[in-house]
Specification:
The structure holds 2 protein chains of 2 kinds. Chain A has 16 helices and 21 strands. Chain A is α+β, with helices and mostly antiparallel strands. In chain A, strands 3, 4, 8, 9, 10, 11, 19 and 21 form an 8-stranded mixed β-sheet that branches. Chain A is globular. By secondary structure, chain B is α+β, with helices and mostly antiparallel strands. Chain B has 2 domains: 74 residues, Roll (Ubiquitin-like (UB roll)), CATH 3.10.20; 90 residues, Alpha-helical ferredoxin (Fumarate Reductase Iron-sulfur Protein, Chain B, domain 2). Chain B is built from 10 helices and 5 strands; from the N terminus they run E-E-H-E-E-E-H-H-H-H-H-H-H-H-H.
Chain lengths: 541, 234
């Protein structure tokens, strides 16, 4: 239930619905978009960025929260670990197990290699399960991979790496079929044709969905398949350092058992990093849609081992994070709400942006509406937001559409006595996705021999802004490619002698640049949400 | 803000704590000094990691929910369910026939259901768990898939079933069978995959890849947009 003082604005929203039913906001021209982004997108706040002083990307700018970790101190003392005496010896080690990790593990297993998955939380606890709206694939007759390519490049401001986008759009339909053969239930019409919707920045309806539980549906099927195939996995065992060999190739990783604090040495011929995103670093203090483990660990591991990162200066702020009630602050209100017809309106009930512009544009427009134009609404806890007028969906598409298409959203708000079929939703941008990450080629290979990466921890596919539905697609396209390629690599690689010298060198470099004492240990592993209390010191057992 | 809110009394595994009202069970645990390792996942109601059991100081009736979604109330007694051992049948989906007999063969405990409805009362997603268990007993895979669709697989139904059924894993089997064998085939998807394999779009995509950025920008700005709502306007 909304506080009484917001009622007046809700009435204005209700009163303007008839007008807004026929009103269409024009899409912004390129110049207007550029100006809007420069003025209001959080990526353009220079004080929030810092140039890296050590490592391959020295001189590149990145948010200070990420810079701290990339320049961080290793968690291990290399002199106390013997990397030549492993606890596990496998062909392919997959670090992280969301959609990309699961796909990679399945493909590497299919190629006949011994696979081990190491993951920080439970198998499948990842941002994938929170993906609601859908997965893009150009498979309708009036669509084509070429149009999908153009949409993706435009959404990413033409910075995307063309070769990566090419395989993304060409593999997309086969990925949809692969998932269906594994038992994913896509939303379909009675004749079998996919029930597809458009999203921000897509010029065709090409989002394949499973109600608003798309990522959950994909993940629970893949997780089940990992178990059916009896692929080995270690839960609550994040990697805290990679192991190289004397030939400069990947040789495994050091894991940490989060519950017993034991270190685990894994020898592997190839390693695939699929550790996902970064939201729990709360860049610029934004709330986030991300899961508990999204702390950029994979970027830190790869960077310290010499892998190049790209586009690490651009984050995605999802336009519609919940701002009321407080219990779900920052949580995702899926873009599918706008896809189905909900409009964004300010306190006076006026639209201020075309609801299906790409995400960075919509997010910037909301920030402008709240900050400069002061036409947002303030919650009792001081958060500011605008209305996402969800009841428009049922008006446009018929009674019952919201309940049928958005059961997760209806359920989430009903818990707090807000009926989104009758009342609008209060939203503000929330930290959602890292557009950049580890640089890969079309096989998911990095510049470190034997080190592969896939999914949100990589960069280049989405340029400077990812489109809706291209993230889950990315997971499966590049997860599968990386799994296959890593298996081929593992079969033929000549192994050297494993070493942690790169960690020693890193520590020396930090001492030399006087950073060692100023930076935290990394990877971060988990955010710390314990309340800081005065006078209560903490003592580790 | 939290400092000004009214404080309420809760009991975490028996220990008395005071937390500001308005927190979720999860954030109340963190406020009280617990750093979560197990029992915390997406923090948004989608992963099922934070399945939780609680009751009240003067009301022993057990309640069930997701810690990240449930708001704390005065006099709650809280405990997380970090793990529960549940049976999962392993199978090769390509060799399983989508029949009721096969489901019973993989999950034979299904027949032990005596209809107590504890599973339904337990489900934090408010799904009709017992009803889809009985659909499964009748071999109606489609109904199981539909009714169980919003399942997060938190495992509370299995944890509470007095007969040891594992409704959430059984339902996943049914959904996979439905998706693999019973859902109608998407011909347009098959056609498109064949077209891509035959190289139909290669030249067009190659041209886009070679195009100058200015050219690409003008193509992007001038591309025709399919109306989002087309099929619904009548």
């Amino acid at each position: 239930m909304y506080p009484a003082y917001l009622e007046e604005s809700i009435h204005l929203v209700e009163d303007t619905r008839v007008r807004r039913l026929i009103e269409t906001m024009p899409p912004l021209a390129e110049v207007e978009k550029t100006l809007l982004l420069r003025q209001y997108h959080p990526d353009y706040i220079e004080e929030s960025m810092r140039q890296l002083q050590v490592g391959v990307n020295r001189g590149d700018s990145t948010p200070v929260e990420l810079a701290d970790l990339l320049e961080g101190n290793p968690r291990i003392d290399p002199d106390t670990i013997d990397p030549s005496r492993p606890d596990y010896n496998v062909d392919v080690l997959v670090i992280g197990c969301g959609g990309a990790g699961a796909s990679a593990a399945l493909l590497a297993h299919e190629e006949g290699t011994r696979v081990l998955i190491a993951t920080k939380l439970r198998l499948g606890d990842a941002n994938t399960v929170g993906a609601q709206a859908g997965t893009q694939a150009a498979d309708r007759p009036n669509d084509s991979p070429a149009i999908h390519y153009l949409d993706t490049m435009g959404g990413g401001h033409f910075a995307n790496i063309p070769e990566l986008v090419e395989v993304l759009v060409k593999d997309a339909p086969s990925v949809i079929k692969w998932l269906e053969r594994l038992g994913v239930n896509w939303d379909k019409d009675a004749d079998g044709s996919m029930h597809e919707l458009s999203g921000g920045g897509t010029s065709r309806r090409r989002l394949h969905s499973a109600r608003d539980y798309t990522g959950l549906e994909e993940m629970r099927v893949l997780r089940d398949e990992l178990r059916n195939k009896k692929i080995d996995y270690l839960e609550f065992a994040p990697a805290i350092e990679l192991i190289l060999d004397d030939r400069g190739q990947i040789a495994g990783a050091v894991l940490m058992n989060l519950e017993t604090d034991e270190l685990i040495v894994v020898r592997a011929r190839a390693v695939i990093i699929t550790t996902g995103g970064i939201g729990r670093l709360h860049i610029q203090d934004f709330p986030t849609t991300n899961h508990y483990g999204a702390t950029a660990d994979g970027l830190v591991l790869a960077y310290r081992a010499g892998a190049r990162l790209i586009f690490i200066d651009t984050m995605q702020y999802h336009p519609t994070g919940a701002v009321y009630p407080l219990q779900i602050l920052g949580q995702l209100v899926t873009e599918k709400v706008r896809t189905l017809g909900a409009q964004l309106v300010n306190a006076a009930g006026e639209q201020f942006v075309m609801p299906l512009e790409p995400r960075d544009i919509v997010a910037s427009a909301i920030i402008r509406e709240c900050r400069e134009r002061q036409r947002g609404l303030t919650t009792p806890h001081g958060e500011v937001g605008v209305w996402l007028d969800s009841p428009m969906i049922d008006i446009i598409r018929g009674e019952g559409t919201i309940t049928r298409e958005l059961p997760a959203m209806v359920r989430q708000f009903r818990r707090h006595n807000i009926d989104i079929t009758r009342e609008p939703i209060l939203v503000h941008p929330t930290l959602h996705y890292q557009n950049g990450g580890i640089m890969i080629d079309t096989d998911g290979a990095t510049n470190v021999p034997g080190l592969y990466a896939a999914g949100e921890c990589t960069g280049g596919v989405h340029g400077r802004n990812r489109l809706i539905g291209n993230s889950t697609l990315d997971l499966f396209v590049f997860g599968r490619r990386a799994g296959w390629a890593a298996a081929q690599y593992a079969r033929q690689v000549k192994r050297g002698s494993p070493t942690l010298d790169h960690v020693r060198n890193w520590q020396q470099e930090l001492e030399r640049t006087d950073l060692a004492g100023k930076r935290p240990v990394s990877p971060r592993l988990l955010p710390n949400y314990i309340r800081r209390t005065r006078g209560h010191a903490r003592q580790e057992l | 803000m939290a400092e000004q809110a009214r404080l309420i009394d809760i009991y975490i595994m028996g220990r008395h704590c005071q937390v500001p009202e308005g927190l979720t069970i999860l954030t109340a645990l963190e406020y009280s000094g617990y750093r979560m390792i197990r029992g915390c996942g997406c923090r948004a109601g989608f992963c099922g990691a934070c399945a939780t059991i609680y009751n009240f100081k003067n009301d022993p009736q057990l309640r069930y929910d997701l810690a990240c979604q449930k708001t704390v109330e005065p006099d709650m007694y809280l405990v997380q369910v970090p793990f529960f051992p549940a049976i999962k049948a392993t199978y090769d989906l390509e060799k399983v026939k989508p029949t009721g007999e096969k489901i019973l063969a993989l999950y034979p405990d299904l027949v032990k259901c005596f209809g107590c409805n504890t599973c339904t009362k337990t489900c934090p997603q408010e799904l009709e768990v017992m009803w889809f268990v009985s659909d499964a007993l009748r071999g109606d895979i489609r109904e199981v898939a539909d009714k169980s669709f919003d399942c997060l697989m938190c495992g509370l139904c299995a944890a509470r079933c007095p007969q040891g059924l594992v409704p959430y894993n059984m339902a996943l089997l049914c959904r996979r069978l439905y998706g693999r064998y019973l859902a109608p085939v998407s011909q347009h998807l098959e056609d498109r995959i064949a077209e891509i394999d035959s190289g139909k779009f290669d030249a067009e995509i190659e041209a886009l890849m070679k195009a100058q950025e200015t050219e690409l920008r003008s193509m992007y700005a001038g591309r025709d947009m399919e109306p989002a709502l087309e099929q619904y306007w009548e």
